Amino acid sequence: MTTEARATAGVDVAELLGLFPHGTRLADDGVLVVGGCRLDDVAAAYGTPTYVVAEDALRRQARRLREGLAARWPRSRVLFASKSLPARAVYHLMHDEGLGIDVAGGGELLLALDAGVPGSAIVQHGNAKTDDEIRRAAQAGVGTVVVDGEGEIGRLEQLGRDGQPVLLRVQPGVDPGTYAGVSTGQRGSKFGVPIEDAPRLLNRLANSSRLDLRGIHLHLGSQMFGLDPYRKAIDVVSALGEFDVYDVGGGLAVRYTFDEHPPSIEEWLDVVTEAARQGLPSGAELWVEPGRACVAESTVTLYRIVTIKHGSPTFVAVDGGIADNFEASTYIGTRFQATIATRVGGDELVDVVGRQCESGDRIAAGVRLQDPVIGDLVAVPVTGAYTHTLANNYNGALRAPVVFCRDGVMTPVVRRDTDADLLARELAFP
Ligand SMILES: Cc1ncc(COP(=O)(O)O)c(C=O)c1O
Description:
Blueprint: H1 3-7, H2 13-17, E1 25-26, E2 32-34, E3 37-38, H3 39-46, E4 50-54, H4 55-72, E5 76-81, H5 88-96, E6 100-103, H6 106-114, E7 122-124, H7 131-140, E8 144-147, H8 150-159, E9 164-171, E10 193-194, H9 198-206, E11 211-217, H10 228-238, E12 245-247, H11 265-279, E13 285-288, H12 292-295, E14 299-309, E15 314-318, H13 326-329, E16 339-340, E17 348-353, E18 362-369, E19 377-381, E20 402-406, E21 409-414, H14 419-424
Helix pairs in contact: 4-11, 10-11
């Protein structure tokens, strides 16, 4: 079957390829090529499951964000929300592309520093920063600390560095219109301080002899399709007074399936900067901190089919699942597309499920594959965000490697767990 003939089958191949990293193409024999690397070659070299990152696509997205914001608001900064894909190579790449780095825990700080990111380029988050994390951030000379609650102020004054620049994270009280598990900017959130407490706390920070209050932080939620909440939130914080810095968080949705049509990065930046022009001081610095929109589309997870159960539905079970894509199976739910990596397209309706012991372990429900058979490679696009970072050893799974692909060269940047890793934390018992 030629590539053209395949394109006429059930799935619109061009649309499907549109979910894959920028630059993805089909080889003459129909095999998917990501970052210039054939996916069958990646599987042969690194096994499955594997996260395959198209390095150029990742860099392109980082640039699109940084240049897009700078064109609309020159005094601006894009921070990479590193919780979405915390691998040293990614920290290095984002810093190299001129993004700042948002870390939300001592481990992310460690990875960022180890990747060569200077402390000054790092913004520290966390609704429950430990004393140790505050001290480590001070030692690293972290550029900005986002104060997440009243109780943190005294601890930062005591344990942080003298003159530490800070932002205050506020709850604008705006419903982000997304999944409850990833909503953060509404009233009653565990993050930030209620908007009515903000004036008092801002006053306290402004009068601190140890901390340097620079501005306001907000983050509304994740996988947000609507842009109105950004308008409303910026309007709410504009009433708090004039500051040097406004960080309006991340949260932009990405397109996982054909039915989803999130705003583009450019549309998001248009709305955010327009709202800033209406409500914020014109000389202020405007920061955004996307994670998902920065990394999701750069990556494909590659699996191998282990078994197929024909029926209604037909289950195509692969050698991964919850262990490598926790978010899909749990708090956000199944919403991926998939294809056989060597026979793209097709019209056989199946559910691609994982091998972990949960019925919710569905990677892609109701997708169309072409004649799936045991041993085929399955490629699941848009898996750069919140996959590697939430990977786990459920059912004794060995966590998957991360492989960068660029111009046909494969570079592993995180290796697969080994049996020895699995046993490493186990101690002798009497
Ligand atoms: C403070 C903060 N900023 C940014 C982000 C990134 O969000 P997203 O990946 O949806 O862009 C998060 C995600 O949880 C966050 O908590």
